[in-house]
Amino acid sequence: MSDGKVSEATEEQTGSLNARPDFRATSDPALQESAERGAAQLLGYGELYSLWERQQWAVGALDFSQDRIDWHERIDPEERYARMYGLSSFFVGEQRVAAELGPMMWACPEEDMRIFLCTQIADEARHVAFFDRFYSEVGVLEAGDLDGRLQETSEHLNPEFGVLFDEMLHRRVQRLAHEPEDLEALVEAVTIYHMVIEGMLALTGQHFIIEYNERVGTLPAFVEGFTNVARDEHRHVAFGARFLKDMVARDDRYRAAVQRTLAEIAPAAEGVLRPKWIAASEEDAEIFGVRVSETRAFAASALQRRLKVIGLG
């Protein structure tokens, strides 16, 4: 993965979102400048659980009436297709990981870790419900139920998505389902899910999609709900950083497991960041008003901050 830094334009675009006090309250190292020195303060597992209680939100409280108008009257068909690609990986991804977290939770060696991961399972289910309600009430898809909408959006995914979720992550989770005492497999799964899928891919996409909609003044209820989703993800990533920091300090074989896993999944992760209609060489191609090269730099910078705090930078 690129080791490039975030451009000044990228920092300016996402600065206001990352500066939110409720985002910073999660202790995600990517939001702390001190993480550049490996000195970020991480919350404990019990503190993260308490924060989850304070940061509740309800999908049913969102009003998508203006979003429906925007989608059908203000956004042209070509842009709707591009937006659909950007959202599809989130909808399907939330559904995938909600199912994968169970074995990861069982495998955690301490009870306070397991309690927090139970909250994350609830969060992921709520995120699926959020996307399902958005698609249904705004009239984005033709399918008439949740299963149908998941199938319809799956058609927009690129091949690397399947490699990352259905092969690399799923393989580790299946191992944990049969051998929950395999802490090395748990470290690998947390590296893939919390550090890369959530920390690099999801949060990068969320920040640029939210900023784009705010800039052009579209989909206000979606922006409100998706911002809540992003805040949840920062809290999840903060758990992953704390867990990996603790495990790396416990045994050098876990340090090696993190490094090995990052090297293995790098090609698939970079592919997920690139829409399937954009060639690998087209670094200046734009989606949501941001060049592919900028999204890579933003994702890489966030990962580097987290790795430094874990003890790997």
Written account of the structure:
By secondary structure, the chain is an all-alpha fold. The protein has one domain: Orthogonal Bundle (Ribonucleotide Reductase, subunit A), CATH 1.10.620.20. Residues 1-14 have low confidence and may be disordered. The chain starts with 7 loop residues before the first helix and ends with a helix. The chain contains twelve helices and two strands, in the order H-H-H-H-H-H-H-H-H-H-H-E-E-H. A hairpin with a 2-residue loop joins strand 1 and strand 2.
Give the SSE layout.
Layout: H1 8-18, H2 21-24, H3 45-54, H4 65-74, H5 77-107, H6 111-138, H7 146-154, H8 159-178, H9 183-216, H10 220-250, H11 252-272, E1 286-287, E2 290-291, H12 292-310
Antiparallel strand pairs: 1-2
